[in-house]
């Protein structure tokens, strides 16, 4: 092969990353702490050293990353995008550290789980109980978060597993994560015992068009509005609370009707209300998400325990994923 032929295998200069990893992590600290000085304090560096790394990134890429606002800073659109990549790099590095530590003792480790309230009570808690018996060296750190914040926490590397729900009309940004389906969580009409439909085997959402409503969390309220619109009405929402115990109390006192997922009713059930399946309404999907490359043995043990808990969940109509 001639020397000229060898040029086909030459590495183009642009094939090498232009972003210095250390500068990226320094910039991440600036973005997360909101100022050069706060980032310097967090890193134990001087402020000029932090500024030098940020200027280097701006010089290499030819775009401004921050704009000064008084004593603080504001990220430019390019800076916001770069911060997202900085979070991903930091998460991968933490996963690498923990994966290597796990090789010393594959039976132990710390796994951080973020989950919405009813999943915390019905899926996470039984999984923790089972793991306590089988994997004594494994520790779990639990945080209750609604799906959007749980996804952001997972993307930042501040948790290892995010348990989220997704309604059929929603488009959660799950790109870049590994999804493990846990099950389908049906929606139930929650009615006072005195309601004419309380003893029905199923009820149509349109039959509740004239009722007073209590709405739940932001995602749940949005789903109620979407589902009601499909049935040609706008629900008369009189009350709002993301506490499903309070929702049931309001319904029991005949102040409103509501729609709750089966897991919420399994977590805490008021005997003074009736829960009736909604005819033709699709369930919400419950999913456990992890970051790719997070191959900790302890993490896989937790995911398996969550799937086992979903398989025996007693929520009415809940169907675990195969």
Automatic annotation (TrEMBL):
Keywords, alphabetical: DNA-binding, Transcription, Transcription regulation
Protein name (database record): LysR family transcriptional regulator
PROSITE patterns, per database record: HTH_LYSR
Any one Pfam family match given in the protein's UniProt record, by short name: LysR_substrate
SUPFAM superfamilies: Periplasmic binding protein-like II (SSF53850), Winged helix' DNA-binding domain (SSF46785)
HTH lysR-type domain span: 19-76
PANTHER family: LYSR SUBSTRATE-BINDING (PTHR30346:SF29), TRANSCRIPTIONAL DUAL REGULATOR HCAR-RELATED (PTHR30346)
Family per record: Belongs to the LysR transcriptional regulatory family.
């Amino acid at each position: 092969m001639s020397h000229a032929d060898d040029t086909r295998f030459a590495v183009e200069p642009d094939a090498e990353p232009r972003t210095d990893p250390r500068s990226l992590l320094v910039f991440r600290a600036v973005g997360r702490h909101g100022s050069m000085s706060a980032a310097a304090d967090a890193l134990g560096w001087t402020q000029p050293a932090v500024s030098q790394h940020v200027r280097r990134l701006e010089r290499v890429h030819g775009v401004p990353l921050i704009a000064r606002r008084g004593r603080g800073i504001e990220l430019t659109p390019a800076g916001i995008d770069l911060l997202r990549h900085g979070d991903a790099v930091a998460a991968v590095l933490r996963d690498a550290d923990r994966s290597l530590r796990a090789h010393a003792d594959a039976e132990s480790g710390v796994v951080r789980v973020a989950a919405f309230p009813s999943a915390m009570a019905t899926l996470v808690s039984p999984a923790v109980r089972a793991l306590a018996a089988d994997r004594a060296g494994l520790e779990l750190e639990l945080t209750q978060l609604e799906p959007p914040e749980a996804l952001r926490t997972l993307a930042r590397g501040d948790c290892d597993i995010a348990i989220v729900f997704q309604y059929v009309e929603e488009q959660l940004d799950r790109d870049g994560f590994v999804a493990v389906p846990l099950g389908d969580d049906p929606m139930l009409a929650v009615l006072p015992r005195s309601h004419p439909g309380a003893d029905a085997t199923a009820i149509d959402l349109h039959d509740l068009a004239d009722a007073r409503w209590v709405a739940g969390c932001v995602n749940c309220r949005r789903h109620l509005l979407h589902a009601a619109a499909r049935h040609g009405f706008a629900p008369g929402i009189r009350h709002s609370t993301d506490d499903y115990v309070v929702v049931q109390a309001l319904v029991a006192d005949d102040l409103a009707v509501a729609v709750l997922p089966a897991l919420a009713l399994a977590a805490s059930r008021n005997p003074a209300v009736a829960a009736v399946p909604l005819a033709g309404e699709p369930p919400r999907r419950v999913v456990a998400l992890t970051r790719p490359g997070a191959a900790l043995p302890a993490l896989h043990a937790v995911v398996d325990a969550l799937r086992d808990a979903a398989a025996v969940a007693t929520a009415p109509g809940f169907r675990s994923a195969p």
